[in-house]
Amino acid sequence: MMPMESESVATILCTSKQTRFNIATPNYRELDIEGLNIVVTSGPHSTAKGKEKAKARSDGTEILSNASLRLKAGQRYALLGRNGTGKSTLLKAIAEKFIPGIPEETRIAILQQTQVSDAEADGTLPGSSVSQTIRGDRLVSEEVIERATARSEVQREIQVLSNAISSTDPCGSLRGLRQLRYQRLQKELFLRDKDARLRSGARGLQARKALIAKEKEVAAMQSQRDQPDDEIPSEVLAKETSEAADLLAELELQVEPTKVAETESRAKRILSGLGFSEEYMQKPIASLSGGWRMRTALAAVLLQETDILILDEPTNFLDLLGIIWLQNHLSSLAERDDAPTLIIVSHDRDFISLCADILIIKDKGLTYFHGDLPVYEASKAEKRLHMNKMKEAKEKQKEHMEKTIARNMKEGRAKDDQNKIRQAKSRQKKLNDRWGLEVNSQGGRFKLNRDLVGYHLTSRAEIEVEEEDRPVSLVLPTTTDLRFPGPLLSLEQVSFRYTSLSKARKAAAPSPFALGGITLSVHMGDRIGIVGLNGSGKSTLVKLLVEETKPTSGTLTTHPRLKLGYYSQHAVDDLRRLGNPPVAGALDEGAVRGLLGSLGLPGRLASDVPLRKLSGGQLVRLQLARLLWRRPHCLVLDEVTTHLDYETVAALRDALRGWEGAVVLVSHDRWFVRGVVEGLVDDVNANSENGEGDEDEERPRRRVVYRLRAGQMTELKGGVGEFEEGVGKRVRKLMNS
What we know:
By secondary structure, this protein is an alpha/beta fold. Among the domains are: 152-257, no CATH class; 388-451; 573-630, no CATH class. It is 43% helix and 18% strand. The strands form 5 sheets. It has a 6-stranded mixed sheet, with helices on both faces. A 6-stranded mixed sheet has the order 17-18-19-15-20-21, sandwiched between helices. A 4-stranded antiparallel sheet has the order 1-2-3-4, sandwiched between helices. Helix 3 (116-122) crosses helix 11 (290-303). The longest helix is centred in the middle third of the chain and has 43 residues, at 373-415. It is flat and about 100 Å long. Residues 376-434 form a coiled coil. Residues 48-389, 496-709 form the ABC transporter domain. This is ABC transporter domain-containing protein.
C-alpha cells in the first residue's frame, strides 16, 4: 500500500496488490500490476496514518479502482479517455513511480503537457516530470544533452576526484573518494526514506528496516569521511587511493570524446527533426518562446536511454515535418532489441496510428485492445450492435418461455397433469439459474466448468450492452442572411513584406516579401485549407484575411455584411490573461449560457470558474463560443485543435463539415483537414464506398487545399495527401543524412 504526495496542493494516493515472493528478475520495460487504486486528494497527506489515510482516500477523487495496469515490453500504447478521467494523473503516477510494483531502477522519461505561460513566467523548462530551473546562458543543444544525460553531474564528480588526486595531500585521493561515496549514499537514503514513509503493513516494516540499515551505512561513511589522517591505516590508504584512480577512469569513459561526439550528434539529429535550425540550436534557452521550450523538452526526452517513454500531446507546437519525423523516429525505436515501452496521449489521430495497442481509462478502470484506433472504434461499434441484437433475441425468447410456463402451469393444475407442471418448473428453473449469455468471451459455447469456475448463484451472466459514451456534441449556429450574393473575402495579387529599421540610415528598410502574388476568394459554403511548414507565411496570410495586417500591395475586399470569426493560434494564452468567468457581465446571460452549454461549458463551469483555472480544451471551447455568438458567415481557424482531446476534435470536425458558412482552416492535423476541407469521413461512419461525405447543399461545396511555401501559394490537386507525401520525402532524407 503506497500513498504518495505529488505536490503541495494535491496528493496522489496509490495502492496495489503485490506478491511477497521474488519469483523472477524484473523486466524494467514491463508492468503487471493488479488491484491498482488511485485517488487524488486536495492538500498534503504524507504524514497521515491509519484512519487518517483511509479518510483522505474517501474524501478524494477516485481515478482508478481495482484496475489492472499491464504494459508489455516494447509495445506502443495510445492512452484514450475523456477529459477529467485521470489520464495525466495516471501518467504522473507511473513516471514518479508512486505506484507500488514499479521498480525504482526502471528508467522512465515523460513529456508532460504543462502550462507554457506559467513556464515562461517562473523561468522553468516545461515538459518533464520535474521542471528544471533555466540557466539563461545555456544553449538549446547544451540543455538537451544535460537534461538527457546529466553530463554536468558526471563532470562534477570527475572534477572532485581529479582535484583530490592531483593535490599534494597524501590522503587527498582517499578524501575525494569518500566524499563521492557519501554523496551517493545520501541519494540512496532519500529513496529509502521515500519508500519507508509511504508503505504500510509488512512491507512498511521491511522498508523501515532497510531505511535504518541505510542510515547506519550513511553514518558510518560520514565517520570515515571525517576520520583524522593519523588514524587511517596505510593499507587502507593505498587501497582507496587505487580505487579513486579506478573510479576516475570509469567516469572519464562516460565523457570521452567519442561518446560525447556521438551524444551531440544524436542530439543534433533530434533537434533538426523537431524543426530547430543551426541558429536556433545555439540560442539561449531563456530567449525561446513557450512552444520552442516544449520542443526542447521533447528533444531531451527522446535523447534519454529509457525503459518506459511517456509522451503527453507531443505534437503540439510541431509542424507536419516535425510530426512525421517524430512518427518515424518512434517507429524506428521498435526495431531495437531494447525498444522502450511507449505510452502516447494525442488528439492527432494520424499520429497515434503508430500505436499497435489501445489503453482506455473509463469508469475508474483500464481496458485494453490490440489494434489501432479505427479498428478499435469499428470493433466497439460492431460488438455493441451484436450484443443489442443478442439481447433483443433473448428477451423475446424469455417472454415466449414465460408465457409457455404460465400456460403449462395453468393447464397442468386444471387437469392435474404432473408432466406439464414438472416441465413448467424445469423451464422456470432454467430462467432463474441458467439464463443469460450462451457464449463465452472467445465466442464459443458457454461451459459451466470452464467459463465460470467456483461458487456461484447463477451459471450465466446477464447480457449487458456496454453503455455508449455520451458523444461530444458541438452545435454551430446558423448564419445570418447576406441579402445579396458575392464573395465573402477576396484577395487580388496581394503581397506583403515586413519592414525593419536600418541602423545606418535610421529608416525603414524593405525586407524580402513574406507573401507574394496571392489571389484567393472565399464564398459562402467554401472549405479552404491552408497547409505549410513553419515559417512559410500561413499566419501572415491569416492576419491579412482578418485585416489585422494590411497588404504591401494588391487589394483585399470583403462582403459589406460579412461577419467574420477568427480563432488565433494564441487564443488560449490571450484568454488566460482576462481572468473573469465566461459569462461574467454578459448582457443576455441565458442565451450565453445556452451557447456555452452547447459547446461543453455548462452550469457553474461557465459562471464561477476563473479563466486561469480552465483547461486548454475548455478555453478553446470558450473562444469558439465568443466567435459563434455573432453568428459569423466565415470562420478563419488557425490551429484550433491544439488543446482539444481527440473526441472533441472529432465533434468539431463533424460540426464544421456540415455547417452552412465558409471555413478557412490552417492546421497541421491531417485527419482534421481531410474531414473539414476535403469532406472525407471515417470508414466506420462512411455512407459511400469511396468515403466521401454527403453533399446536402443545393450546390456542391468548393473544397480546395492550398500549400504555402516561401510566401508562394499553390493549389494541391491531391489535397493534404499530396502535401503529406512531399513532407514524407523530406523526412526520409533528413533521417538518412
